[in-house]
Amino acid sequence: MMKFAKYTLLSAAIAVAPFVASTSANADEYYRRHHHNNGDAIALGALGLATGVIVGSAIASQPREVYVEPEPVYVEPEPVYVRPAPAYVRPAPAYVRPAPVYVDDYPPAPQRVYGAAVEPWSPEWYDYCATRYRSFNSRTGTYVGYDGRSHFCTSG
């Protein structure tokens, strides 16, 4: 019997909703001329809210017991919380600093030649200065040192 009452009330509310919307839509010219924002919308909103609260509480407070005369009484059981099974969660990977790697693939350092000076502006001198200094300028015969100044290349 209660299901019937619930469904009847719900269908009545659904049936009335289009009429409420259509009355405000049809009254636009009359309403603009004869009404001056006297709070009708707020009153109707409060009335709709109150109606919704009453209907909602009536539906929510239905008894959970079902009575059938020839059969025993059925009572809906209360909900029971069941703890979920523990799940394995893999820990976040930790940062491990890699071991330092030393690479020794640099070319060997140029060997100093003692006592054998090479004449400036000769082909041997050009080769010597070009291999020894990366910033060697062959037109001026100078290179840029670590101090930022230009130095003349001398062998020996």
Describe this structure in words.
With 156 residues, this protein is mostly helical. Among the domains are: 2-29 and 40-66, no CATH class; 113-156, no CATH class. Helices cover 40% and strands 6% of the residues. It has four helices and four strands. It has helices at residues 2-26, 28-34, 40-60, 123-132; strands at 65-66, 74-75, 142-144, 150-152. Strands 1-2 form a two-stranded antiparallel sheet. Strands 3-4 form a two-stranded antiparallel ribbon. The longest helix has 25 residues, at 2-26. The radius of gyration is 49 Å and the shape is elongated. The N and C termini lie far apart (116 Å). The model has no long low-confidence stretch (mean pLDDT 77).
What is the strand and helix layout of this fold?
Layout (H helix, E strand, L loop, with lengths): L1 H25 L1 H7 L5 H21 L4 E2 L7 E2 L47 H10 L9 E3 L5 E3 L4
Antiparallel strand pairs: 1-2, 3-4
Properties at a glance:
single chain, 156 residues, mainly alpha, two-stranded antiparallel sheet
